[in-house]
Design brief:
The complex is a heterodimer of chains A (317) and B (412).
Chain A: H1 2-9, H2 14-61, H3 80-87, H4 89-121, H5 127-135, H6 142-164, H7 177-206, H8 209-217, H9 222-233, H10 235-250, H11 254-259, H12 271-280, H13 285-311
Chain B: H1 2-19, E1 29-34, H2 41-54, E2 58-62, H3 70-80, E3 88-91, H4 96-99, H5 110-114, E4 124-125, E5 128-129, E6 132-133, E7 136-144, H6 145-150, H7 161-171, E8 179-182, H8 187-200, H9 205-213, H10 223-235, H11 246-254, E9 258-264, H12 267-273, E10 280-283, E11 293-297, E12 300-303, H13 309-324, H14 326-334, H15 351-361, E13 365-366, H16 370-373, H17 378-390, H18 396-410
Parallel strand pairs in B: 1-2, 1-3, 8-9, 11-13
Antiparallel strand pairs in B: 3-12, 4-5, 6-12, 7-9, 7-10, 7-11
Classes of the chains: A mainly alpha (317), B alpha/beta (412).
Chain lengths: 317, 412
């Protein structure tokens, strides 16, 4: 009798309490993990539905003779689509053109964006107005920009040429192979420089005034300050801006479509447009898909390489 | 535990909401209708509303149209789920073959009985009528009659390229004229429609063009196409080189910048909207002495064979109403400006439309062979090549060579 009474009344040992506490904690952790998972489930479903599944099925389609309608009945053709993509002179040409465009954009957008950022962070009075003005083109859609500038290049320029008697500089740029390229660059830079500017302004503002003042006291000129203080500390902004301009320029479609539509005689066709044309004008859906996969790989490699290269130069004050 | 329930309930509700949007069933058969011509969309809505009012048990919903990207949008619809794709859809040109497997046979419709044999080529595949042509359309050279008579030129005398060229020489000197002949830069206008003259004038075009596709011969081996290229050399310097958009081309014609434009009846409404003060009319493009207008069926209406039985039946009822009933014919002529493809149907008024009806009536027509015999993608490649030609990058022999190469590449 005594024995049994003792068992009931005996206080819990330390180890027991710890064990129970552990168990309780584990249970709680499991439960919060479950809650966490349930919370991200809807987003995960959407992500899988609109990104993962199309991406994977796109890769699968590129190895078949899929005709653009239902996938059932398509045959696997191995690397056939990739072979035809590489032997398509138009595709190769569009790739070269995209590279050329991306390079010009990379240099000009960042150069102009950075200069504008320096201008509107200086002590001029109209800097707030200027900031919004420079940023504004970025808020207009590429298609509309393209159509507006098409009017300027193909109509206004012709009129200007006649009035000023300067037909050598002002003619219909859109129908000239060389100037059509530069008209694309001008519109692209005009649209994107403002966006780059905003990121550079943020970068400039994050530099502590201590460093700048210290260099001033040491008698550094403006040029030296820019070269040895501002630029090294701004590398993170350059990394992000160069990534943005590169990937956007390589993927350019709307300005290309609205401004030149690939003309004159197909010389300004960029990769995205070539992929679209292959699918919907030439009805080679699987080949277009293969081109899109190649397109993705090239953009990924180039941008990763660029980010890697510039982020290695990042320093902190 | 309570928290978990709340979250799960939320997820469930979300899932329910996203699936529950499907519709219930009622006695009214609902069908959807999508077509490519933006210019008739609002008038067509009026016609559809009228039909819905007068026909109980069927409700037609006219879906929005996107013009240029029509085939792309339609294809996405069919790729997603053929059963919910539009019940009635319009189709034309080389895209037709892609959608052929979704087109229900329409031989048992009333309208099919009124369709003359010479218009069946474009809409009959494997002895099955797969579309009902909406209208007949035609294109050629639209001329400014006042300008021609001022220059002492009788349009009827322009029956050869040499006559046309000497007329152009006179017209080029007229005050305000930029170029005697204007082309528009869109793929179909700058290349497909224009190249069709050479292709369609060959009596055995189908066989000969197929041989180009398989590489047995080049386009230069087809006499009418060689002739077309030679004639193009003669008129090249009198054209605007196809650098302006369709809108600018028609506006330029209305303003007297071009004495002629290469266009079709669809331009009539635009020219009339510009309230031009001169008379205008149609002449055929006289390559190789041609005296026929290029006339074809614009778009044809097809019924989706993956739609339910009732929907397909309702769709045929609607099409029969539009084409054969008195009300439908009145709408077709007055509102939609359709030149009838069917015998005994009222024609709309207008210089160009009347002119096309006249040429069609007397059988002086050449077909639109690009709908059936050009490989898909020729519009893109052909436009590139003819732009090169106009920009003096290649000559006419080079043009035919590039086109032949593209023909082989795109031929399947």
């Amino acid at each position: 009798m005594n024995d049994s009474n003792n068992t009931v009344a005996r206080p819990l040992a330390d180890t027991d309490i710890r064990q129970r506490l552990e168990l309780y904690k584990k249970k709680k952790a499991r439960r919060s993990r479950l809650t966490f998972f349930l919370f991200i489930l809807p987003a995960l479903l959407f992500f899988a539905n609109v990104v993962l599944v199309p991406f994977i099925s796109g890769i699968v389609y590129s190895f078949t003779d899929w005709g653009g309608f239902s996938f059932a009945g398509s045959q696997f053709t191995g690397l056939e689509n990739y072979r035809t993509a590489f032997s398509d002179a138009r595709f190769v040409q569009s790739f070269l053109f995209s590279f050329k465009y991306a390079f010009a954009m990379l240099v000009l957008v960042n150069l102009i964006g950075f200069s504008l950022a320096l201008l509107v962070s200086s002590k001029i009075k109209t800097k707030n107005v200027l900031r919004s003005i420079y940023f504004m083109p970025n808020m207009i859609g590429g298609l509309i920009l393209g159509f507006i500038w098409q009017f300027i290049f193909s109509k206004l320029f012709v009129q200007l040429g006649e009035v000023l008697g300067a037909e050598g500089a002002f003619f219909n740029w859109i129908i000239d192979e060389r100037m059509a390229f530069w008209s694309l660059v001008i519109v692209g830079v005009w649209q994107q420089a403002g966006y780059a500017m905003i990121i550079y302004i943020a970068g400039l503002q994050s530099i502590s005034t201590d460093v700048k003042e210290a260099s001033q006291i040491d008698g550094a000129s403006w040029g030296r300050q820019l070269r040895h203080i501002l630029l090294p500390l701004m590398v993170p902004s350059f990394t992000i801006n160069m990534f943005l301009t590169l990937s956007k320029a390589l993927k350019e479609y709307d300005i290309n479509l609205a401004l030149t539509n690939g003309g004159p005689y197909g010389t300004t066709e960029m990769v995205a447009m070539n992929v679209f044309q292959t699918a919907y004008r030439f009805n080679d859906f699987a080949e277009a898909q293969a081109k899109a996969v190649l397109f993705f790989l090239v953009i990924m490699v180039i941008t990763l390489f660029q980010v890697n290269l510039t982020s290695r130069r990042e320093v902190s004050a | 535990m309570k928290k978990v329930f709340v979250v799960m309930a939320l997820v469930l509700v979300l899932a329910l909401v996203s699936t529950a949007c499907g519709g219930g069933k009622s006695d009214v058969v609902k069908i959807t209708f999508m077509q490519s011509k933006t210019e008739i969309q609002s008038d067509l809505q009026t016609v559809v509303d009228d039909f819905n009012e007068k026909n109980e048990g069927i409700e037609v919903e006219l879906l929005g149209t996107s013009g240029d990207n029509y085939a792309t949008v339609l294809q996405s619809n069919f790729a997603a789920d053929p059963a919910t794709a539009p019940t009635i859809f319009s189709m034309s040109g080389p895209d037709t073959v892609n959608f052929e497997k979704f087109m229900a046979p329409l031989d048992d419709t009333e309208a099919a009985k009124l369709l003359p044999d010479n218009l069946k080529d474009a809409v009959v595949i494997d002895d099955k009528l797969i579309g009902l042509p909406s209208a007949v359309e035609g294109y050629g050279l639209i001329y400014n009659a006042d300008m021609l008579s001022d220059a002492g030129i009788d349009p009827a005398s322009l029956n050869s390229i040499d006559a046309l060229v000497s007329a152009f020489e006179k017209l080029a000197t007229v005050e305000g004229v930029d170029a005697p002949l204007g082309f528009a830069k869109e793929n179909y206008f700058i290349f497909i429609h224009f190249f069709n003259w050479g292709a369609a004038l060959d009596p055995d075009y189908s066989e000969n063009l197929a041989k180009v596709g398989t590489g047995e011969q080049t386009l230069a081996d087809i006499p009418s196409i060689k002739q077309w290229a030679d004639d193009l050399d003669k008129i090249k310097e009198f054209t605007n080189k196809g650098l302006v958009s369709y809108d600018d081309q028609v506006a330029g014609f209305s303003a007297g910048k071009y004495a002629m434009i290469h266009q079709g009846v669809w331009a009539q409404q635009v020219i009339d909207q510009n309230e031009v003060e001169f008379d205008y009319g149609f002449i055929p493009y006289p390559t190789g002495g041609n005296d026929k207008l290029a006339v074809g069926t614009a778009t044809a209406w097809s019924v989706n064979n993956e739609a339910s039985e009732e929907q397909q039946k309702a769709a045929k009822t609607f099409l029969d109403w539009l084409i054969t009933s008195d009300e439908g014919q009145k709408h077709s002529a007055d509102l939609l400006n359709f030149i009838p493809a069917y015998t005994g149907v009222k024609a709309p008024a207008g210089n160009l439309t009347e002119s096309v009806a006249e040429y069609a009536g007397s059988g002086k027509t050449v077909g639109w062979v690009y709908n059936t015999d050009f490989p898909s993608g020729m519009d893109v490649d052909g436009t590139t090549s003819i732009q090169k030609y106009y920009a003096d990058q290649i000559d006419s022999a080079g043009l035919l060579q590039e086109l032949s190469d593209a023909w082989v590449k795109n031929y399947k």
